[in-house]
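User: C-alpha cells for both sequences below?

Assistant:
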Amino acid sequence: MMAERPQIYHCLNSRQFSRPFVEEACRLADMARMIGKTKAGMEFLSTVFNDKRAMLFFTQPSTRTFLSFFSACQILGMHCAEVRDSRTSSEVKGESEEDTLRTFSSFFDLIIMRHYEAGLAETIAALLDQTERPVPVINAGSGKDQHPTQALLDIYTLKRCFQAQGGIDGKCIAFVGDLLRGRTIRSLSLLLSKYDDVKMVFVAPSAFQAGRDILSSLEEEGVSYQLEEDFESVIPRVDAIYMTRLQDEWDKEGHASSTIDMNRYSFQARHLALLRPHAVLLHPLPRRQEIAPEVDGDPRAVYWRQVRNGMWIRVALIALIFQRQERIIEYFQQADRRER
C-alpha cells in the first residue's frame, strides 16, 4: 500500500499552499538557517538527503532560481544533475518533453523544472503519477503563469520584515510595473489572499495592468484591491512595494513594450523620503532600471535578503515534500537545549 502523501507533494502553483503550510515552512526555514550557522550544523544538514538525487530541468533562462535550488539541494546533501538547454537533450532528435522528463524520473527522486510553457509542470506531475515510479515535481517557473516558490520566499521575506509590526495581516502591498505578464505577481497575490485584511494596490500603465484572472481570483477571496497609474501617490500609503521589471521577452505575443513609458514606474533615490519608516521594498530580480542602485543601501530595500531567504525556504520545502522535517526540528531542539 502506498504511503500517504504529504500536504504538498508536487509543488505546482501557489494556490496549493495553505496558510498553516506556509507558517510551517517559514518556521522550518528559520530552524535550518540557524542550524547552518555552525560547521557541525552544516555537516548535519548535508546528511538529511544524501540518499536522494535531483534533476534541475531549466530550459528557460534562470540565474537566481536555478542557483537557489541548486544550493538548497547541496545544503541538504542531495546529489544534482542539470539540463539548462533542450538542445543538449534528445529533444533535438524529436523526443517529446513528456518522454524526456519521464526518463529523468527513472534516475532521480525529484524533478525541479522551469519552462516557457505554462502548465507543463502540471502535465508532467499528472503523467508521472501514472507511472511505476512517481516522483515529486517542483514548478520553478512556468511561462507567464506561475512561480510558486518565488511567492513562498516573498511571503517568508515579508514575515521576517514585519515581525515587529504584527506580521502580514492587515498590511497594504503595492505591486508595480509590468503586472500583466509577471508570473511572480500572479503567484504572490494569490498567496497573500490567505492572510487577513490584506489590501493590494496594482500600479501600472493601463496596457500592463494586472490581468482579469488575478483580479477575479482576489474578488472570489474577498480581497480588497485598487488599480492605480500614479506611482508616487501610492508610495507613502503602503507597507510594502513589490517592484517588477518589464517583461518584454513576451512582446512577440503582440505587446509593444517600446511604446510604453515605464520610467514613471521606477523607484528612485528621491522616493525614499516618501517611503514609510517601517515599509519595505522588494523585487524578484533581475532588475533593470526599476530601482536605482542608490537605493540599495537603505535598510528598507530587502531584495538582496529575498535572494538568501529563497535558498532557505526551498530547503524547508524539499524537507516537507519528503517528510523529513522532523530530523531538522529534532536537531534544532537538541542544539537549543545544549546552548541553554
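Moving on to the next sequence.
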Amino acid sequence: MKFKIITLGCKVNAYESEMMKEKLLKAGYTYDEEAPEIILLNTCSVTNVADQKSKKMARHYRRENPNAILVICGCSSENNKNAYEEVQPQILLGNRKKSEIVNLLETYFKTHEKYQFFAGTRKLSFEDMQIEKFTTHTRAFVKIEDGCDNFCSYCVIPYVRGSIRHKDFDTVLKEVETLVFHGHQEIVFTGIHTGSYQSSNGKDLTDLIHEVSKFEGLKRIRISSIEITELKEKFLKELKENPKICDHLHIPLQAGSDDILKKMSRKYTVNEYKKIIEQIRLVRPNISITTDIIVGFPGETEELFLETLKTASSLEFSKIHVFPYSVREKTAASLMPNHVSSEEKHRRSKELTALSKKLEKEYAEKFLGQELEVLIEKSGEESIGTTSNYLKVKISENLPNNTLVSVKILSYDGFCLHGTKI
C-alpha cells in the first residue's frame, strides 16, 4: 500500500517520522506523495499556532482523502485528543507506540477496528527507536532523549512528552555508526531536553560526543539545542579540543530580563547566561550562537521588553527565533495576571525580529572573503549547503549532494551567503 507522512514541529518529530517511514518501507509499503492510501500526520503542540495548524492539516487531509486510512500522532493529539476524534482517524495516538506503526496498521487491516492509545502518565520508559539512513535530510538526526522535567511556566511539553528518559549509550553509538556507514557526514543529536542526556552507564552528552567523534567518516557533530545550565566545564573542554563539534550552538534565552526569567521558572539569571556565553567565545571566538526569545509574556512591561532587546543586542546572537507568548492550558503562566495584548505582542515581535535581522547580517558579513567548508544539501543549477556555523551558502554550479566543499564567500543577500567553489 502507498503512504505519506506529514511532519509538523521539531527535529524530534522529524526523527520519529523518519523512523516510521523506514519501518513501513521495510515492511513493503510504498512512499507516495501524490496518491497515498495511508496518511500519517505527526502533530506539534508547542504553541497555539502549532496546535491550530495541526488540527487544520488533519481536517484538510480527511476532507481531501475521505477513503484514506488516517493515522494521527504526536504532541497535539496527546494534548487535544477530543479535537482529533472529529476527523475520525483509523489510528489515533499521542507520543507512544509510533515505533509500532507497522503492527498497528496490520492489526487494523485484519479487524477494521479503530485504535487509540494515550499513555496517561508522565512516568515512561524510553521508546526504543533507531534509523539506518535519513532520507529527508542530508544531515541525520539522532534522537537520544525524550521528555522534560523543567516545567517552565509557559510550556505544555512536559505534560505531552512525559518525564526525562534516555537512549542507551551503546545503542546510540551503533545507530551513529550505521548512519555514517550509509554516507551521512553530519549527525545532529536531538531530544526534547537534549543536554540532560545521562545514560544508564553514567555517561553524559559530552561523553557521547567524545565517543562518536572516533568514527572516521563522521565529519560534523551538531546539537539541536542545549540549555545554558548544561554548558559546564567538561563540555567547554570538549568544545575546545574536538574539531568535529560544529561551530554553532542553539542556546534558548527566552527573556533578557531577570524578572521575566523568574516568572518563566527558568533556572538562570541574565548575568549567569552572559558569563557562560563569554566562556564559550573564549574557546570558539567565531562560533554562531542562536537563541529563542518569547515576547509578551504575562507581566512583561515595555521597560522589561526593552531590557530583553538590550540583552539580546549585547549578546550578539547570530539569529533570534522570536515567539509571541502563547497561552497554554495547564501551565502556570496561563493563570498569571497582566497578559499582554495581541497587538503589543505583534509590535514587540517585529522589533525583536528586526534586531535579529541586523545581528544575522553582522555575523554573516564577518565571513566575506573567507574560505568556508560547506556541506551540500541541495543540488541543481545552484547548489545550497550549510557551514559548520550554520550559515546557508549558495554556489552557482551543480555540486553532488552530501559532499563537503571549500567555498570562497563573495556576498550576503540578507538571507544567505553566496560563494564560489575553490
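User: Anything stand out in the second?

Assistant: Residues 368-421 form a domain with the OB fold (Dihydrolipoamide Acetyltransferase, E2P) fold (CATH 2.40.50.140).
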